[in-house]
Amino acid sequence: MSAPVSVVVPTYQAAAQIGPTLADLADGVLAGVVRDLVIADGGSSDAVAEVADAAGARLIVAPRGRGSQLAAGCAAARGDWLLVVHADTRLAPGWAEAVARHLCDAPGAAGYFALRFDDESVAARLVAGWANLRARLFALPYGDQGLLLPRTLYDAAGGYAAIPLMEDVSLVRAIVRTGGRRALRPLASVATTSAERYRREGWLRRGARNLAILVRWRLGAALTHRPRSQPPWMRSA
After folding, report:
1. Are 165 and 89 spatial neighbours (Cβ–Cβ below 8 Å)?
2. Residue 132 needs a FRET pair 20 to 30 A away by CA distance; which of 53, 103, 141, 189 works?
3. Which segments of the chain does DSSP mark as H helices, in order?
4. Phi-psi category of 114—alpha, beta or left, where left has phi over 0 and alpha has psi -120 to 50?
5. In Å, how far are 130, 131, 179, 201 from 124, measured between CA atoms?
């Protein structure tokens, strides 16, 4: 039987930082979990094509915005399962075994990793702790935690919406509406994501902005794509 999982990574000008993320995925290949790798790029001008070729990945170019890119990447993926990982996220050793156990124990449910930041500060631990608590209490993990999706559930939930922000929250809420809270379960492994934006903008300021975006989304505000002059915290992939 072929490996069941397609890994989809959204990128935009990320060729210089994606190497460690791709290196971690080798564990999944060796474990017989990963079938193929799709890099869903938003029209970068960097060396992403060369990186994709070196990694044995297929490069899919889509309109810029994580929602559009991930919808295109998932459509191109060949596996019965999808694992969406951001370009600045590292999967911990043993992640492939955790995924394999989930596939056996919860074959109809989506999964997500526990969040950690590449920062040892108290602020980083508090933000990650809140994110993990939010995911468990409210069934609301974010894309930085990675998302493992059975193709059937992904399709039933309508897939990724072509929106530049909150595409992860939109899909997760659709999954819970489709399959109930048990359709979304924690994986027994960790995803470590970059804290660069928090360090650059400040943990309190960045956290407040994230909360404001979530509130706007829940209130139904239209989050349209912004020009390149937009501030970094509003940029997509």
Report:
1. no
2. 103
3. 19-30, 48-55, 66-76, 95-105, 122-138, 151-156, 167-179, 196-201, 203-218
4. beta
5. 10, 11, 32, 13
- How much is the pLDDT for 1? 56
d(CA 225, CA 12): 14
The Cα-based distances of 193 to 20, 86, 92, 117, 127 in angstroms read 11, 8, 11, 5, 12
Angle at 171 between CA 219 and CA 23, to 5 degrees: 130
Within a 13 Å sphere around the CA of 59, how many CA atoms are in the beta-carbon half?
17
Q: Yes or no: say if 79 and 3 are a contact pair by the CB < 8 Å rule.
A: yes
Report, as ranges of residue numbers, the positions in the chain whose pLDDT lies below 50. 221-237
Residue 115 tokens, joined = 């969040």
In the three-class reduction of DSSP (H, G, I as helix; E, B as strand; rest coil), residue 5 is classed as strand
User: CA of 179: how far to CAs of 94, 105, 141, in Å?
Assistant: 28, 16, 16
User: Sheet holding 147-150: strands in order across?
Assistant: 58-61, 34-41, 5-11, 81-84, 147-150, 110-117, 184-193, 89-91
- Could you tell me the two tokens for 43? 């029209």
